[in-house]
């Protein structure tokens, strides 16, 4: 099967780009993510394919470094732009156009930061989506998608499923099965990353509950998905990796709860993965200072 994907490098890069949403350069992880997204919404599934393809295609046409393209570094922010727009808005012609253009622009912004050797993670997705959501809310009358208004029915397993729901919400999927599939998708690529992510999701939910956040939103995984990403970044097999995971996750959770409680980013659609990016940047800075003083 791997030989099949090698004969179709563009498709391979798209799948790996989707996998890179959770920092996994793995086509099978990407394929499982894609299945989980389609299970939640065919619009989100098509959108993630289009935007990831647009980002990858733009990188190829602009002659970016081939090794970076093959590592799918130009796919994951593009993928998130697509799925975010399809999740937030009804998919009119304008939204489909913006999904493609936003995916291509994400690759350009990603390249700028790669050239500057700045680890920006999903920051290009955040910038583009904030701008587009603000503009669409203020200058168009496109209604929100039905997914935003759909009611999530509570179950007796909510406390147990909260940890995997944190994985689902990374890619805007609130379905129970999607969250489980996303966890397994990371696990087949990196068991250590998946288990650290699971622990981070639990910690995010627990601390947010202590902070008095709405239990329904905690169960949905909305207070865990940023922590999941921060944990995956610093995950590893060394004992010190666990310490850095804990530091990153605690900082990320604090930023997440602070921004949500104060409605700081409601005007641009929400926090998205900004707490993850900010928490990871701060932890990397602490790490750099610590290593210098050793």
Average pLDDT, all residues: 94
H-E string: HHHHHHHHHHHHHHHH
Protein structure class: mainly alpha
Strand content: under 5%
Number of helices: 16
Largest sheet entry: none
Distance between the termini: 47 Å
- Which consecutive residue ranges, at least 5 long each, have pLDDT under 50? none
Coarse morphology: globular
Over all CA atoms, what is the radius of gyration? 18 Å
> Percentage of helical residues?
over 70%
Instruction: Tell me the total number of β-strands.
Output: 0
What does this 3D model show about the protein?
The structure is a single chain. The protein is an all-alpha fold. The protein has 16 helices and no strands. The model has no long low-confidence stretch (mean pLDDT about 95).
Features:
single chain; mainly alpha; 0% strand; Urea transporter
Short summary of the structure?
With 294 residues, the chain is mainly α. Helices cover 74% and strands 0% of the residues.
Secondary structure elements and their pairing?
Blueprint: H1 2-6, H2 9-19, H3 27-40, H4 42-61, H5 66-70, H6 76-88, H7 93-115, H8 123-139, H9 146-149, H10 158-170, H11 176-189, H12 191-210, H13 215-220, H14 225-234, H15 239-261, H16 274-293
Helix pairs in contact: 2-3, 2-4, 3-4, 3-11, 4-6, 4-7, 6-7, 6-8, 7-8, 10-11, 10-12, 10-14, 11-12, 12-14, 12-15, 14-15, 14-16, 15-16
Organism: Chryseobacterium vietnamense
Protein name: Urea transporter
């Amino acid at each position: 099967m791997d030989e099949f994907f090698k004969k179709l490098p563009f498709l391979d890069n798209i799948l790996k780009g989707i996998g890179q949403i959770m920092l996994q350069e793995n086509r099978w992880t990407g394929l499982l993510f894609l299945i989980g997204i389609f299970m939640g919404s065919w619009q989100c599934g098509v959108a993630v394919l289009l935007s990831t393809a647009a980002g990858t295609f733009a990188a190829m046409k602009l002659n970016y470094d081939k090794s970076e393209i093959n590592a799918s570094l130009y796919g994951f922010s593009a993928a998130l732009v697509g799925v975010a727009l399809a999740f937030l808005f009804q998919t009119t012609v304008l939204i489909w156009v913006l999904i493609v253009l936003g995916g291509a622009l994400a690759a350009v912004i990603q390249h700028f930061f790669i050239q500057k050797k700045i680890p920006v993670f999903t920051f290009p997705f955040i910038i583009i989506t904030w701008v587009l959501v603000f503009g669409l809310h203020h200058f168009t009358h496109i209604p929100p998608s039905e997914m935003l208004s759909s009611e999530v029915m509570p179950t007796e397993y909510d406390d147990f499923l909260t940890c995997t729901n944190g994985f689902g919400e990374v890619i805007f999927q609130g379905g129970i099965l999607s969250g489980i599939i996303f966890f397994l998708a990371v696990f087949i690529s990196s068991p250590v990353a998946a288990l650290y992510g699971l622990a981070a999701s639990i910690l995010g939910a627990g601390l947010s509950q202590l902070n008095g956040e709405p239990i329904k939103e905690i169960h949905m995984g909305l207070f865990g998905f940023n922590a999941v990403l921060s944990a995956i970044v610093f995950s590893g097999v060394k004992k010190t990796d666990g310490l850095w995971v804990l530091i990153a996750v605690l900082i990320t959770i604090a930023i997440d709860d602070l921004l949500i409680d104060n409605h700081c980013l409601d005007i641009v659609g929400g926090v998205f993965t900004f707490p993850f990016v900010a928490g990871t940047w701060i932890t990397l800075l602490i790490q750099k200072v610590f290593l210098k003083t050793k």
